[in-house]
Amino acid sequence: MVLYHRGAAIWASSTRRGNTFVAHACILKDDGEPVSLPELGQFASRSCAFAFAVRCATAFVDGKPMPRRPFRVSSGKHE
Q1: Scanning 33, 43, 60, 73, which has its CA 20 to 30 A from the CA of 19?
Q2: What pairing do the DSSP bridges indicate for beta strands 8-17 and 20-28?
Q3: pLDDT (tens digit per residue) in 9-55
Q4: Where are the domains of the chain?
Q5: Residue 18: Cβ-neighbour burial (10 angstroms; 0-12, 13-18, 19+)
Q6: Strand, helix or coil for residue 22
């Protein structure tokens, strides 16, 4: 689904990874420059991942700080 915010086209999505969903966002800025944000975080549901991707993309377009991820996934290694 493409959303529009302040002249920018936002394509937010989520992909399944194991038992979680990863949030992603691509933005076509009003000047025509495409921007792909890195993986934005992992979530327990598809709808939460999508909503977070939208929040991150609109913050990026507005020039505001990105929202914090709800949690950080450990790699399993102890430091």
Answers
A1: 60
A2: antiparallel
A3: 999 999 999 999 999 999 998 888 899 998 999 999 999 999 999 99
A4: 2-62
A5: exposed
A6: strand
